[in-house]
Design goal:
Length: 402
Amino acid sequence: MAVTDLESLPVETPRSVYVHVPFCRHRCGYCNFTLVAGRDYLIADYLKAIELELNKIKTPLEVDTIYLGGGTPSRLPPQDLQTLLNLLDNKFRLAEGGEFTMEANPDDIPGEIDVVIRDSAINRISLGIQSFSLPKLRSLDRDHDLSQIDRAVDSVRQIVDRFSIDLIFAAPHDSHSIWREDLSRGVASGATHISTYELTFEKGTLFWNRKRRKQIHSPPEELCVTYYNTAIEHLSESGFVHYEISSFAKLNQRSRHNQVYWNGQPYWAFGPGASGFVNGERYTNHRAVKRYLKQVLNGQSAIEESRLLTGQETAIDQIVFGLRLIEGIDLCQFEQQTGYRLKDLVPAESLSAWAEAELLTLDKNRLRLTSRGILFADTICSQISMSEPADAQATLPKPPDS
């Protein structure tokens, strides 16, 4: 069944939902996400478009995770956030023990929005702090300050039991001491989950252009490695488990929604620029917000591009995403789920070279990156994605669903 036709339920009904909220107060210099800044007048049309997208699902579904990302979902006025939550509630029932995450910025909480969140099914908040250093925040184009962070953290702790914070390293005006302070204050905040990201310069962003003009510089690679290793050491010592390349969690506090992506499970996606995975088909909605609104409000599909993956492509994707997990991939389980063996998909010489370089290990039928290999994860996964095995047709005798 094509994703563009949701009149009938798919054979493999996803149990996770992602909704993209594209509104922000302003666009940070490093951000390349789908968003509009200072255009809150589009919110009414956005909510109409989301309703039309959701109306393609005729029967309410039970799901395990819902994620409101952005953009800045907390940018929505309280009454508009309530409208969005009502729309979702009409189509999706959160299973008992399910996870409903909403991203928020420190300058939006506390406020009237607190009551909406408290009275909803939202039980987890991802707070975009990025740093506890004011000069570093300003260098990242973030407009909240330290007092706003403190108030937001205090408020979030009263609203939900679980909350995550994002922290960025290798930013302008960063230093090892500032980064250690960011980590220490992150732990002290009471966050149950911390995500750490190296500042990247994405093509088309303000930071990308500033870097090309040599107005801003990337720190040396060895310094970035030091920052990353410091995060692993500090957070591990503070009771967090490093379970994914960028993610650290307290006991039983891993992001259930993000694990859907890393484990290759299906999920719905709604809103501009949102990408979903249903019945082996990956699809992405129109990235330009106005284009998305025009398409959907005119009764046309929100989807800009889609691709039905072959069994082999699905299996390769599962390797690439699975290697992001620190525990790696259980190859017995992988073979049962995909019908492919590792040697059918990745050239033996590549695996041997990575193992010899101590970047990858295969122990007790579990494939994973080493601590050194994690530093080269993007390169390794890119090469796996482009692999052309000698016998691309070789599979187990009977792949699932064949």
